[in-house]
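Hey, can you fold this one?
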Amino acid sequence: MKEQVRYGLIGTGMMGVEHLNNLAITPGAVVTALADPMGTSLDGARRALGQRAEGVESFESAAALAESGAVDAVIVASPNFTHREVLEPLFDAGLNILCEKPVATTIDHARWVVERAAQSPGIFWTAMEYRYMPPAAEFIAALHAGKVGRLQMLSIREHRFPFLVKVGDWNRFARNTGGTMVEKCCHFFDLMRLIVQSEPVRVYCSGAMDVNHLDESYGGERPDIIDNSYTTVDFANGVRAMLDLSMFAEGAENQEEITAVGDKARLDVLIPEGAIVYSPRVGFMNPKQVERRVVHVDEAALKAGSHHGSTFYEHQKFIAAVRGEGAVEVTAHDGMMAVAIGVAAELSAREHRVVTMAELGV
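Sure. Predicted structure:
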């Protein structure tokens, strides 16, 4: 048995419970503390823990959990707008942190996270589960190995269901989430940077709230979150990337489709189908030579969450880093840059113009 790592969880809603389920199948991970101001959420987390809930302490705040001395590592899965407040006592205590995306709702707060992470003796890991979906991970490795030749075009499509119901419906307003392009799409902007291996220069986004939440009202206030968009990102190395988002297309066969085109071939990955499709250039009118295979995902990992097994694989990497047996693969800086591209996309959609990253100070 590997050395045990004591985990605390802050934010015990749906994503928090997914983390608990994955810690249950992570060797050496022991949950010792929970924190959430909502008793109903804490009750749900305890139900998810089952027999493992015995001896697990409950706290109403991140500060109380941080001061308890009961944990070595903390998962932050609280609402986006709480992250800065939640992270401060965790940094003060020098704890190891896995913080759910987005790390913050503004660039200034994300920059603060980067600064504090650099000063902390503990590790800081931005939770970007989409990197760790096995089909996506193999797709990325193939691209970096030169499978398509020189990459020139990258497109990502997510056609999915609307935002889920949250406590207090906090995710219906951009002031709480950072906006859809930050809250949801930071995953994909992170993938873009990882795949392209360059930094964004300019962003153009055309998007709006056209279908979802139109008949909802909260204290007389209507939701203001984008439910569909096209976003184009130009990178410093000349690669262009595009995100096609629809949050009223849950009937699609695959929720995520990623396509990379280089000077020698095209490569696709389809999730949850799990297929990787390789299409080399063959010249005009010559027979196509398409190769298709399906990437296996461990059944236990699939059952432990709703992110195609990725949360399990992410936790194996995180606990290795906590033990000093591996590197931090998704840094606070990575988290900040994903937020920054999302902020640029939100601004672009509102003002109907191209936004440069330079004007945002990143």
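Residues 332-351 form the longest helix (20 residues). Let me know if you want another pass with a different chain boundary.
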